[in-house]
Structures are given as structure tokens and as C-alpha cells.
Amino acid sequence: MNSTRYKEKFDTRASEWIGDMAVWHLENDPDNREQRERLFRNLHKVMRNELTPRQRQMVTMYYFQRKNIPVIAEELGINRSTVSRTLKRGRARIQRYLKYSF
Question: Across residues 28-57, what is the average pLDDT?
Fold first, then answer.
């Protein structure tokens, strides 16, 4: 894989970096079961212990329930920008705690 293509597929600044890492591991390590299990175990620990209840709620709705920002805002009765900022802070916390998990 050339470096340009690699940079396109894996951008650490992208908001979907956790998914990017999982995809990269699946494509480049035929037996990465242990790394994936460790990543998801650590992800759940971070979500449980390091996110605020509101961040956890919105991260769960956005990533696990696959709801978009306008739907989350409507369901919670808050502004879309509040959802966006809360997700951004939640992702930053998750990234900070998981960056050494691999």
C-alpha cells in the first residue's frame, strides 16, 4: 500500500478514527482478534469511566444506534450545535485514553 493511499484511508484527524483503525487492522493483520478485543474492552472502559453521562448518551446514540445529529437533538430537545460539541468532546476524551491501546 503506498503512503498516499494509506493517508487517505487513515486520517487521525477524522472524526471516525476509531472505525478507521478497526478497518485498518482488519485489512492488514489477518489475525488481529486480540488487538480488536483489547480495543473494544478499553473503549467500553473509557466510555463507562471517563465520559460524562451526557457524552456517553450521545456517543451511544450516534455510533451504536446510528442516529444522526438532528435526530439526537430532536429526541433530547436540545440544539444541534450542542450535540455536535458534546460529541466532539466525547471523541476527544476517547481518543486521549485509547491512543496507546494498540
Answer: 86
